[in-house]
């Protein structure tokens, strides 16, 4: 037996992993035994795997997901620190969003729908013309939402260009159902166009009838989740106060990219009404 190979017991003592964790990391391809006896099933690990195992254990103690752990440990050592920093920046962004959401929950649970610090959203009624839309939709949860919207917008634009059609309005994201960690929409991404376009693959054509919608404009800062939820509430309250029935799914209309200043208009929250 190679003197640099360690039996499972010795490997566990050196790495301080539990047998359950070692099996899990093996199944996920993070810590594959250096040698497995074909008859007995006994496993041996290389001495060089001890440092990798300790790194895996530390990353998991920091609650890094297993898929991300694998990405980090497969990097060159010089690149691992930057990868951990990128992941942690995302964690802190998520905590900030949750903190803001909890503040909103405090207001709701306290029955205070209009606290002093709540943003003021001006809501107006507008008429909309009939429009042809190129659309795609998907059922997805909140962690998939951002990538889907950006990818769908790119695919829709490319198909319009390939068809020789012209974009005739802003990108629209229609929420036909709630999107959370548990609720999967569906979500529809649509672009108004003029010209001739054929449906293909997951891309469909839809005609949006003329009508009316209640709408409010948000700055880029106001459009960040969960502040965005306040705009939905403001539009809903305005419709109820005006005696208007909400007849369709709410829409986010993107006025431009995210490269605008935080206090510049970024998107509209619109709700079809009758």
From TrEMBL:
PROSITE patterns per record: HTH_MERR_2 (PS50937)
Keyword field: DNA-binding
Residue ranges of every copy of the HTH merR-type domain listed in the record: 5-75
Molecular-function GO term, any one: DNA binding
Claim: Transmembrane helix is one of the keywords in the record: no
Pfam families: MerR_1
InterPro entries xrefs: DNA-bd_dom_put_sf, MerR-type_HTH_dom, MerR_fam, Reg_factor_effector_dom_sf
Protein name in UniProt: DNA-binding transcriptional regulator, MerR family
Organism: Geodermatophilus siccatus
């Amino acid at each position: 037996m190679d003197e640099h190979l360690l039996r499972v017991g010795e490997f566990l003592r050196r790495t301080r992993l539990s047998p359950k964790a070692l099996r899990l990391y093996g199944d996920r391809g993070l810590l594959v035994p250096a040698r497995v006896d074909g008859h007995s099933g006994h496993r041996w690990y290389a001495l060089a795997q001890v440092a990798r195992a300790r790194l895996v254990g530390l990353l998991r103690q920091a609650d890094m997901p297993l898929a991300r752990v694998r990405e980090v440990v497969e990097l060159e050592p010089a690149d691992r620190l930057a990868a951990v920093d990128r992941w942690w920046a995302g964690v802190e962004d998520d905590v900030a969003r949750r903190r803001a959401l909890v503040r909103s929950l405090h207001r709701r649970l306290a029955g205070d729908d209009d606290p002093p610090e709540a943003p003021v959203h001006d809501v107006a009624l507008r008429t909309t013309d009939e429009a042809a839309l190129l659309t795609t939709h998907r059922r997805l949860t909140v962690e998939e939402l951002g990538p889907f919207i950006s990818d769908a917008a790119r695919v829709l634009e490319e198909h319009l260009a390939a068809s020789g059609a012209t974009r005739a309005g802003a990108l629209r994201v229609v929420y036909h159902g709630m999107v959370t960690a548990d609720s999967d929409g569906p979500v529809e991404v649509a672009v108004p166009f003029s010209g001739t376009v054929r449906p293909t693959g997951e891309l469909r054509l839809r005609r949006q009838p003329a009508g009316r919608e209640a709408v409010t404009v948000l700055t880029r800062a106001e459009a960040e989740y969960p502040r965005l939820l306040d705009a939905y509430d403001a539009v809903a309250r305005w419709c109820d106060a005006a005696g208007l029935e909400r007849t369709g799914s709410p829409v986010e209309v993107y006025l431009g990219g995210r490269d605008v200043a935080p206090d510049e208009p970024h998107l509209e929250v619109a709700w079809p009404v009758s």
